[in-house]
Amino acid sequence: MDQIQFAIAGTTTLNTNPLHTCHVDGRTCEIADAIASPSLLRGSRSAARLHSAFEFVTDVLPCAFCREAEASVDRLRGVRFGKHERNILQYSPGPTSPSGAILDPDLSTHSDRETYLRAVRKLSRLGLLEVGHRLVRVQTGSRRKDGTAVTRAYMHRTLQQTALGALVVEAYRSEMEAGKAIRWEKQLDGLRQRARSSLNELLVEFGVSLETRVETLALESQAGGVDAKRARETRYLVQPLLDALKSTVRWNDDEVKNQRSRG
């Protein structure tokens, strides 16, 4: 039989059969360890069922606020920002904005446009910028025979700060506005702490995502057919995880609202 000890209130964790391993450092996922603790196993019939359930929800783990956030902060060491990186990051809307903005600077040469696009890709790779797309219709000036205006649709790139991007702008705004070299080291430790959520915050974030997943599965299970059967089976596995989290984690309406706004 597998030897399993689980972390409770900060004690050491020994888990020879982890539910999930972190893609950042290969260690056991602390959310998975918390879910597998005895206090959260009420209602679960077996470890096998718990593993099966977790396989269906790993895609909604809040990795962006966990070790992934710490790794993103560490990657900023030695990074240099040019004019485009600074302007893009400062003028992109924050993560709580309902949508990204279409930033279309007046760039006259091909070289300038390529430099701008490289800056966008660089910020995206660093985890500071979310890049999306939006279809925009514009009138061409021509008219059809019936007098209606002719329109064309163009796909535009949208840009939006990630949660980490917003923290970077807040912490280093003076250097970015002045065009000075950014001295990352002086605030990197504080930035790492702010980017990284506590275990309880991570569990609430995960719980909110689980709740959405269960609601979606409930709707899909009413459709009928093979897909509906699969949705019912998946919901049967996932529901105990959500119930356990809501009964064990410090869960209140204000915290859930804050977590939903972050997403």
Topology (elements, then pairings):
Elements: E1 4-5, E2 14-15, H1 30-35, H2 47-55, H3 67-74, H4 83-91, H5 110-125, E3 129-143, E4 149-161, H6 163-178, H7 185-195, H8 199-220, H9 226-248, H10 253-262
Antiparallel strand pairs: 1-2, 3-4
Helix pairs in contact: 2-9, 3-7, 4-5, 4-6, 6-7, 8-9, 8-10
Main beta-sheet annotation: 2 strands, antiparallel
> What is the alpha-carbon Rg in Å?
23 Å
Sheet-strand content, in percent, reads 5-15%
Strand order across the largest sheet: 1-2
Ends distance: 40 Å
How does this structure look, described?
This protein is 49% helix and 12% strand. The strands form 2 sheets. It has a two-stranded antiparallel sheet with strand order 1-2. Strands 3-4 form a two-stranded antiparallel sheet. The chain is α+β, with helices and mostly antiparallel strands and 263 residues long. The chain contains 10 helices and 4 strands; from the N terminus they run E-E-H-H-H-H-H-E-E-H-H-H-H-H. The radius of gyration is 23 Å and the shape is flat.
